[in-house]
Design goal:
Blueprint: H1 3-7, H2 21-24, H3 26-32, H4 41-46, H5 49-56, H6 62-74, H7 79-90, H8 93-102, H9 114-118, H10 135-149, H11 152-197, H12 211-221, H13 233-240, H14 242-256, H15 258-282, E1 288-289, E2 291-292, E3 296-301, E4 312-316, E5 320-325, H16 331-348, E6 350-351, E7 355-358, E8 363-366, H17 379-396, E9 400-404, H18 412-427, E10 431-435, H19 441-444, E11 449-457, E12 460-465, H20 475-479, H21 484-502, H22 508-527
Parallel strand pairs: 2-7, 5-10, 5-11, 8-9, 9-10
Antiparallel strand pairs: 1-6, 3-4, 3-7, 11-12
């Protein structure tokens, strides 16, 4: 064992530092900007993408986590190449284990660095920093001369230099400590870069030519050897300003090599994300590689966050879908299953299903609108705000819109009327998948939304064409302890209302009016650009 190895501290254990979601999202925000998001904040929450991301990132460093987040956000812009790599890794257990082990050092990083690499450039090293190496020797020399000669005037110089050393240490100590954490993450990245380059592995082939350079930069940004000597660190810092000198020198070396550091980050993060996806798939029995097509077709699809998920199949051709079903049957779960699979197919190329055909469109949702007491926003106002956001997104580009129980916050008649108008307009620009207890929406929107009903057959959920025939809202009154008199009264009112509203005799006239209004709106809009 070399003397250097004896002096250097042992590698810290792998810690899997718990980074907060805001840290994970920094790479996407700093490298691509907020205006490139293809998944907005509400869709991210509705589709449970935060816990899903955590599941994907098991035993993955901040580098891989940030790359997985970026791919989810940006969709399939560069998914084709990663699909080839992930499929190859998933099929080669030995190679997958070797690469995962090689990247293990990345998990010792406790500071995300994308903000430093892709954010605003760091300032250049100040000119006066060159004097830092002179101050400690000058202090010691003046102190020795003062002791030897006894000149009182020299003690004034000693005091001035001492105060200057302390002032520099106090002023830059926190920045130096923060840089130490950033530097540690950079060095783990560069070390992994070098290790991967030495492997005879096709996923690491682009890294081979960079191995020597990564090593040189690693040494250039690293701390001096004095700070590694046991017991000498405090003396090196307070007497020789070694931490401050390392801070300025290391930051300047990193600034000069910024393009390579960014290149290293992208390659290492992409490879670790591929490893995470391949490991995830090897532990996921039900998955398939998605086929591209204009339709949506999922066969025996499940939600990956549900341990005992009941597989469901759904197929949508030209139209979207209006989904009905009894209370508690699983309509919201179906929507989340469809939405998450469409997002994952676009980002990673696979689905949690036996077979999948997906159109590769962005997905937007409205599933969790609530009263907001802090902002004074009622449920209906929150629903209106979200509907307006979806309409604005639909005007930008085609998309898939997933909506659960639209406009619950107002009365029945206005809810149906507003829902019809919004859903009809959204359907003209994309594919809408909506669940609702307002069954009258089925005939009103029959030309753009195919009615589908979720039911349980022998304990197995299935999705079939049609509208719910037997509701259970009133039946649940008795099951939940209400008196039979309450149920009887509710049934009488229900049957009376059904005669007037549940099955209107003819919706053709109102559908024609809706189409005429939409066509007139499109003509008016188009004419403004002529």
């Amino acid at each position: 064992m070399s003397l250097l190895a004896l002096l250097l501290p042992a590698d810290a254990p792998v810690a899997d530092y718990p980074f907060v979601p805001a840290d994970v999202a920094l790479y996407h925000r700093t490298a691509h900007g907020a205006d490139t998001d293809l998944i907005d904040a509400q869709t991210w929450d509705d589709m449970l993408l935060q816990p899903y991301s955590a599941q994907l990132a098991h035993e993955t460093s901040i580098f891989g986590q940030q790359e997985l987040h970026r791919r989810l956000q940006r969709g399939g812009r560069d998914a084709a190449a990663s699909v080839v790599r992930v499929r190859a890794l998933a099929a080669d257990a030995g190679q997958l284990h070797l690469l995962h082990k090689t990247c293990e050092g990345l998990r010792r990083s406790d500071r995300e660095i994308s903000e430093h690499l892709f954010g605003p450039a760091a300032p250049a090293k100040p000119r006066w920093a060159a004097l830092l190496h002179c101050m400690p020797p000058a202090f010691l020399l003046s102190a020795v001369l003062a002791l030897v000669t006894g000149w009182l005037s020299l003690w004034g110089v000693v005091l001035a230099l001492w105060l200057a050393l302390m002032a520099v240490q106090v002023r830059f100590r926190d920045e130096a400590e923060e840089w130490g954490r950033v530097r540690n993450s950079m060095q783990q990245m560069l070390r992994t870069h070098s290790l991967l380059a030495k492997l005879d592995a096709s996923p690491a082939a682009p890294l081979r030519a960079d191995a020597a350079r990564a090593g040189r930069i690693n040494r250039a940004i690293g701390p001096s050897m004095m700070r590694h000597v046991p017991g000498a660190r405090e003396y090196a810092d307070w007497l020789w300003l070694q931490n401050i000198r390392d801070y300025f020198n290391g930051r300047e070396a990193a600034r000069r090599q910024m393009e390579f550091l960014r290149h290293s980050f992208r390659l290492v993060a992409a490879l670790e994300a591929d490893i995470a996806l391949a490991r995830h798939l090897t532990q996921t029995p039900r998955h398939c590689w998605a086929e591209q097509g204009a339709d949506v077709a999922l066969t025996q699809a499940v939600h990956p966050l549900l341990a005992q998920a009941s597989p469901l199949s759904i197929a949508l051709a030209r139209q979207g879908a209006l989904i009905s079903g009894q209370n508690g049957i699983g309509k919201s779960t179906l929507l989340r299953t469809v939405g998450l699979n469409l997002i994952v197919a676009r980002a990673f190329g696979f689905c949690y299903a036996d077979r999948a055909v997906t159109p590769g469109l962005p997905v937007y949702s409205s599933m969790q609108s609530e009263d907001a007491l802090e902002g004074g926003e009622s449920l209906y106002i929150a629903e209106l705000r979200r509907a307006r956001e979806l309409l604005a997104l639909a005007a930008r580009a085609p998309a898939i819109f997933i909506i659960d129980e639209i406009f619950r916050g107002t009365n029945h008649l206005e809810s149906i009327s507003a829902a019809t108008a919004v859903l009809h307009t959204l359907s003209a620009s994309g594919k809408v998948i909506v669940s609702s207890h307002n069954l009258v929406l089925a005939p009103l929107l029959a030309d753009c939304l195919a009615p589908l009903c979720v039911s349980s057959v022998n304990g197995v959920l299935r999705v079939a064409p049609g509208v719910l025939k037997e509701t259970n809202g009133i039946t649940l009154l008795g099951a939940r302890g209400f008196d039979q008199t309450i149920s009887a009264k509710a049934n009488r009112v229900y049957h009376w209302l059904s005669d007037y509203m549940a099955q209107p005799p003819d919706c053709a006239a109102i559908r024609a009016d809706l189409h005429a209004e939409l066509q007139a709106t499109n003509i008016t809009t188009d004419s403004t650009f002529m």
